[in-house]
Amino acid sequence: MARLNIDITDEEHQRIKALAAMQGKSIKGYVMEKLLSPPMTDDEQQAWDELKAVITERVNAANKGAVSSKTFEEVTEETLRSLGRE
């Protein structure tokens, strides 16, 4: 069996690890699927870009100390109320 090694930054590793975890896949499985699959459709790319923008905004806010004092349960309840899904 052949082996492939590549050098990536810690940040790149964390991004790949998170993307794989979000899909319930191993890093190897995720990377192989991405390498051997067709490229994203325009709709998939747009959705991905929107998700990255939201996450980047939230990470930047958190890094600046802009975090909520509410519990996860409080945020969930507020969100469900606002959506009419209590």
UniProtKB/TrEMBL annotation:
Origin organism lineage: Bacteria, Pseudomonadati, Nitrospinota/Tectimicrobiota group, Candidatus Tectimicrobiota, Candidatus Entotheonellia
Keyword set includes DNA repair: no
What keyword terms does UniProt attach to this protein? Answer: Toxin-antitoxin system
- May I ask which residue range the UniProt record assigns to the signal sequence? none
**What SUPFAM superfamilies would the database entry show?**
Ribbon-helix-helix (SSF47598)
Biological process GO terms, please?
Answer: regulation of DNA-templated transcription
Instruction: List, alphabetically, the Pfam families matched.
Output: ParD
The family database entries (InterPro entries) matched by this protein are listed as: ParD (IPR022789), ParD_sf (IPR038296), Ribbon_hlx_hlx (IPR010985)
Q: Which organism is it from?
A: Candidatus Entotheonella gemina
**Name the record gives this protein:** Antitoxin
